[in-house]
Amino acid sequence: MRCQNPVFIPGPTNLPESLRRAVDMPTLDHRSSLFREILQPALGGVKRVLKSRSAEIFVFPSTGTGGWETAITNTLSPGDKVLAARNGMFSHRWIDMCTRHGLEVIVVETPWGEGIPADRFEEVLAADRAHRIKVVLATHNETATGVRSDIGAVRRAIDAASHPALLYVDGVSSIACMDFRMDEWGVDIAVTGSQKGFMLPTGLAIVGFSPRAMAALDMAKLPRTFFDVRDMGRSYQNNAYPYTPAVGLLNGLKVSTELLLAEGLENVFARHRRIADGIRAAVSAWGMELCAASPSVQSDTVSAIRTPDGFNATKLVSHAAEVYDVAFGVGLGEVEGKVFRIGHLGCLSDVLALSGIATAEMAMADLGLPVRLGSGVAAAQEFYRSTTAARLKAAA
Ligand SMILES: *Cc1c(COP(=O)(O)O)cnc(C)c1O
After folding, report:
1. Which of 21, 128, 152, 245 is the most buried (most CB within 10 A)?
2. Axis crossing angle, helix 375-386 with helix 265-285, rounded to the nearest 10
3. pTM of the predicted model, to two decimals?
4. Domain boundary among 211, 245, 262
């Protein structure tokens, strides 16, 4: 027999038992009234998780990448200019997709490990007097480097330049884990997927469109059919899809948003922060550094940990998988071989986090890194036991 260990990759995340059951449904007719009871609460739940009153929510059978494509093809035309920072593999891939769609991307190259430089964006936007830049793209949480950017600051930069550009945010590894304020930050399109903060299997692209993004639909000339939000919106009025919906996943999304909202979004964010702080305590006990350049940009959903020069971090990930049957994330792109990643998003507890830290220590010791067994575990244990809800309550 082989027991299932938790995964520590930054998506797909571990499935809570209740969500695993929610997606496991008998076939039901997606044209029946039963489907309405799944679709409408799922859309409404997502809207609340995005902290939006005015967004229209669309959910496609796809992944986060399909959400990017939905955002650009529905609102832009060939040759349109967009502005983006490249500070990791995911922002790089979004830029690449824009280029392949014939958009002109102004790229602000940013060291991997740093967040989006809002001040540079402001300069570029202020210089664009003719307002040719249509959209600013921002990756909220760079999953490759474990770096969170300040989306509120990006919005302030756009406003300070008095620029009309729309703001599209990739929140695939932040939404439902870290604070995300669609309306307050003036986000025009928010993109995520089912397999990260929503703790579901892969298979849904989830997007929110602001009224300004909706107003751009008819002018946009990029071709789209499967991802046309106008078709999707019309079908939603009849509680249907333009094609066959992923009913089980949508039911999972309904139940997932219920779970998140019952816990309370602020509590969900605080839980992710606390788990992440424990992981960070372990990393510093190991004498190692995060890829994130400063504490202010550290992600609460994934930690990219730099290994010593000359050591191949990818070996650590394959060793942990082969010997201990535990999955960590490899370094991608510029940081390939230089970092390994611990994903700590979604359904996780102190105890599960400790098992990941302990496994990373064993793998590092096996491969000859100067890490004392138990050092990271002890640091995280101290942190977790001093900050459990029960202790905080007793001390109050
Ligand atoms: C996972 C991820 C994606 C890609 O999502 P898929 O669902 O794999 O298509 C995009 N952006 C970020 C920030 C991610 O973490």
Report:
1. 245
2. 150
3. 0.97
4. 262
